[in-house]
Amino acid sequence: MKIAPSILSADFGCLIEDIKKIERAGADLLHIDVMDGHFVPNITIGPGVIRSLKNRVSIPFDVHLMIDEPEKYINEFVKAGADIITVHQEACIHLNRVIQIIKDCGIKAGVALNPSTPVEMLEYVLSDIDMVLLMTVNPGFGGQKFIDSMIDKISDLNSTKKNKPFKFEIEVDGGISKSNIKIVTDAGADIIVAGSSIFGTEDPKKAIYELREANKK
Known about the structure:
The protein is α/β, with parallel strands linked by helices.
């Protein structure tokens, strides 16, 4: 299991310090939520912020584009330092083309699904992507409650992955804590995005350790 803390829950007044804390704490990825105020009802950061962070930390940047027409901005995010770019199926008219744009930049490509979007919508691109991100809350804001019915969705995607087999990783984002991480990974999640349960604590190292321990029980 990999852990990807989301900077959506970080203190933006001391962002680099917060990122260095979770890097030292053993996080595997830094999940960077990019929101445009159109695709989701919130606005966060752009390529400039990512560029300013990239040379100051070594943790891989997992960039989640919650924006309309993401194909227009992929090159900028790659230049800024993205190691993985995930776009939403719901935001892409020509999803296969967008995936190829990302792959042609030499980085990993992921596709995200909102809670109400069925996994069948990815049937014809699963062989082309490195990651599927399943949202287990409605995207836009941190600190929301996990949608319990998403466990079946994770399991269904994991079964599809095993039956081929495909090579993509399953990332899960939204409302994950010590109390439910085990059921999420048992369902098939490979990467856990956690925001307030890590950045919202006084000791991120302890928080990451406790998440890993809860996953073993």
